[in-house]
Amino acid sequence: MAAGKFSFTGSGELRVRSGGRTLAAAGDAIAIGDRVFRLGEVDRVAYHAAARRHRASYSLGLARGPVRCRFGFDASSGELGELEDARETWRRLVELVESAACPRIASAMADAITAGDTARFGGGGHPGIDADAEGLRGRHWFAAKVPWGRVLGSDLRAGQVRVWTGGREPGLVAGMAGWNAVVLPRVVGIMVGRERESPGNH
Questions:
Q1: In the chain, is it the N or the C terminus that has fewer CB atoms within a 10 Å radius of its CB?
Q2: pLDDT (tens digit per residue) in 26-85
Q3: What are the tens digits of pLDDT across the range 83-108?
Q4: pTM tops 0.85, yes or no
Q5: End-to-end CA distance of the chain
Q6: Backbone angles phi, psi at 192, to 5 degrees
């Protein structure tokens, strides 16, 4: 591995060292420094990647209640194999978070929205989207609400979360790096499914 910065085993354990801190992931837990996050308990996640031909940067955030932490690491082509090691480490981290945390968080958020709460996706210096039982609204002045009946789907692309409403361009866009922004496509899928199954739409 590149200068000991990245290490992982066939059993799925991985470790990244950056900026004097270490991220270690094993099983259903990720430790960032001295903070350990059980993925079955976290209620907010965030991740973002920016990769170029000769350089890449990655960031992962985990939170449980008031406890939150972000970890970032970079890689460059100047170190032999570092870009490849970073890409593989990142792929495994995202797969772990997506399988062990995101489905549960999305289900809980969709239930809260259906019950009348407002859920927030993104923000913290990044464009965000709010969701309630009626639909989605971009978090900026004079933003119009998009009813669930007009929402077709959502995806992640080029650092953004995109919500599609039928046009050539996405109807709503949020920054992918904000808290729970990466969970929005799952929540949209659940809410659109519930909208289609509601008695008024049969």
A1: C
A2: 989 999 999 999 999 999 999 999 988 789 999 999 999 999 999 999 988 766 678 888
A3: 888 999 999 999 999 999 999 999 99
A4: yes
A5: 57
A6: -65, -40
